[in-house]
């Protein structure tokens, strides 16, 4: 690990001010990606700005048909929140299958979304639920936020403050996990709203999280697994690695989508 200066602001404004002072700076949230890459000297920021003591970036609140979750809220807090379980139980269930207890008690929603790992769970939830990513500068629709593997619409020094989720009538998340890392080989989040159905796939796409409009349209007409008969994920757009090839991931997209639809449909 290269030497660096450590900063611990207590407000989002202080964090933003610190970020503006340094050219080579990284924000530290849960640290599950940043710290290992620094230890392996794959990253060497000269300044770390730790967001862990900023109270305004934590918390869960429901207002009407919107569930708002602070960026520094930990996965375990999302999983165990009565507000989340009442409003969007699928989101709590997703948080409950992230990593292991150590990861869930350290990792944060905002850190995961900002990192946009192609196998992370939260990007699928944000995209399927049509979430709004709120920063210290603006509001960004999920459809515009995720721009490819480890790439987002965030500008340099921009801080995610919270994520606002519209409450769906029905939703579910189905995940085929890597047995070692618990990352999604394929994860599918399906959400049904009064005006249609949205779904998003993580772990499978060669360019990160993505939606499948053809499946969404079929499910909007008939919210049942059989509505997906004859619709397949494009194999040439799937990721292929030592864990699963493109054909297997394309097959799993169909399997996981049907499971998610079945689970969501069973909820009143």
Tag the structure with descriptive keywords.
268 residues; Uridine Diphospho-n-acetylenolpyruvylglucosamine Reductase, domain 2; five-stranded antiparallel beta sheet; single chain; alpha+beta; three-stranded parallel beta sheet
Folded structure, characterized:
- This protein has 268 residues and is of the alpha+beta class.
- The protein has two domains: 5-50, Uridine Diphospho-n-acetylenolpyruvylglucosamine Reductase, domain 2; 58-265, 2-Layer Sandwich (Uridine Diphospho-n-acetylenolpyruvylglucosamine Reductase, domain 3), CATH 3.30.465.
- The chain is 32% helix and 22% strand.
- It has helices spanning 12-21, 34-39, 75-80, 82-87, 89-96, 101-104, 109-115, 122-128, 142-145, 213-221, 246-265, and strands spanning 5-7, 25-28, 47-50, 60-63, 66-70, 132-135, 139-141, 160-166, 170-177, 184-193, 196-202.
- It has a five-stranded antiparallel β-sheet. A three-stranded parallel β-sheet has the order 1-3-2, with helices on one face. The protein has a three-stranded antiparallel β-sheet with strand order 9-10-11, with helices on both faces.
- The mean pLDDT is 95.
Question: How much of the sequence is in beta strands?
Answer: 15-25%
Whole-number tally of structural domains: 2
Percent helix: 25-40%
Question: What is the H/E string?
Answer: EHEHEEEHHHHHHEEHEEEEHH
Radius of gyration: 18 Å
Q: How are the strands of the largest sheet arranged?
A: 4-5-8-6-7
Roughly how many Å apart are the termini?
Answer: 51 Å
Write the layout of secondary structure elements.
Layout: E1 5-7, H1 12-21, E2 25-28, H2 34-39, E3 47-50, E4 60-63, E5 66-70, H3 75-80, H4 82-87, H5 89-96, H6 101-104, H7 109-115, H8 122-128, E6 132-135, E7 139-141, H9 142-145, E8 160-166, E9 170-177, E10 184-193, E11 196-202, H10 213-221, H11 246-265
């Amino acid at each position: 690990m290269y030497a660096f200066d450590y900063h611990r602001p207590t407000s989002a404004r202080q964090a933003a001010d610190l970020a503006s002072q340094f050219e080579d700076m990284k924000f530290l949230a849960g640290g599950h990606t940043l710290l290992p890459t620094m230890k392996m000297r794959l990253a060497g920021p000269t300044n770390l700005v730790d967001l862990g003591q900023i109270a305004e970036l934590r918390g869960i609140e429901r207002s009407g048909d919107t569930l708002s979750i602070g960026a520094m809220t930990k996965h375990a807090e999302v999983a165990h929140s009565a507000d989340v379980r009442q409003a969007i139980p699928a989101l709590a269930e997703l948080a409950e299958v992230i990593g292991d207890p150590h990861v869930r008690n350290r990792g944060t929603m905002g850190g995961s979304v900002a990192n946009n790992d192609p196998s992370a769970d939260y990007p699928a939830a944000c995209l399927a639920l049509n979430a709004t990513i709120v920063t210290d500068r603006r509001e960004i629709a999920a459809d515009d936020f995720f721009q490819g593997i480890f790439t987002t619409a965030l500008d340099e020094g921009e801080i995610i403050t919270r994520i606002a989720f519209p409450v769906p009538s029905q939703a579910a998340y189905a995940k085929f996990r890597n047995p070692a890392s618990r990352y999604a080989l394929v994860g599918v989040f399906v959400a049904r709203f009064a005006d249609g159905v949205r779904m998003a796939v993580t772990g499978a796409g060669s360019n990160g999280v993505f939606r499948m409009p053809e499946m969404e349209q079929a499910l909007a007409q008939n919210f049942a697994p059989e509505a997906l008969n004859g619709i397949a994920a494009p194999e040439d757009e799937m990721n292929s690695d030592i864990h699963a090839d493109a054909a297997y991931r394309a097959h799993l997209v169909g399997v996981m989508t049907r499971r998610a639809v079945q689970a969501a449909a069973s909820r009143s």
